[in-house]
């Protein structure tokens, strides 16, 4: 019998690898699903512990790196401070050398223009002139060192100036006195003019007051005459008014309104339409006709009430009959309802008995066999 060696093809290897991968995934899934801790908590504790450890290592590495950076920064700062200190010392040394060189080789006294800003120049210089008579050889034609008033005759010149000032003051005093006298004369003249004007004004005032007094007297006389005339006119008007009132009272007393004349209420529209503002009431005949009409209306109203009473009684009888009919119908309905309830109760008892018999049949025959442990063990074997 020939034996053939079986060789796996690449497709078979792929299928086997796929099956093996699925089997491994299924086993890992079983471990997760059938592990109560993982299933209830819902997390992978090992993976979380691994993450915690990695985070600790990361923090430790970061802390170490920060320490290294801090140390490097401190070293850099120290080096920078050292370099800055050296630069400052070098700058100070250079400035000191420059200052010493200036003090030795660049003094102010050695400059060409030192005489322009020499602080001792005034002490070293000569005066502008020595003599005012022109014997000073340092003064030339255009030296401009001698001016008017700058001479040796200062005392005589000051005395002459004082005399001239005194004469000017005396002259000003005389002019001021003359001006004051002229002012006083002008004031006196003005006072005289004012006094004359005041006298004239007083005279005119007295004349005006006299005219006003006479005018007031004339006005008072005219007012008295006018008042007497008005009083006489009012008296005449009062007398006339009194006579008019008496005439009006007489006319009212003797007029148709108070005498109640029936003719005054007659109207042009007919005898049955008198004037309302002049109507004084009905006569005895008119009152009798009116009362007869009222009695007739009362009889008609009584008849109407009797008819309404009869109709209401008929309606009451009809309502009573309807109520009796409704009561009898309600009694019949209640009787039918009680019979129906009785039938329903009997039907419920019959159905309960049938259900009880059916339950006994299920318990004795259908559900007689109880499931064993093997029945429950066949479940929960896979993850699907």
From TrEMBL:
Instruction: Look up the domain of life of the source.
Output: Eukaryota
Q: Does the keyword field hold Magnesium?
A: no
List where in the cell it is found: Cytoplasm, Cytoskeleton, Flagellum axoneme
Q: Where are the bilayer-spanning segments?
A: none
* Pfam families per the UniProt record, alphabetical: RIB43A (PF05914)
Report the coiled-coil segments: 84-111, 335-364
Give the record's keywords alphabetically.
Cell projection, Cilium, Coiled coil, Cytoplasm, Cytoskeleton, Flagellum
Keyword check for Cytoplasm: yes
Question: Region Disordered: what ranges?
Answer: 123-148
Q: How does it assemble?
A: Microtubule inner protein component of sperm flagellar doublet microtubules.
Q: Which family does it belong to?
A: Belongs to the RIB43A family.
**Protein known as:** RIB43A-like with coiled-coils protein 2
Species: Temnothorax curvispinosus
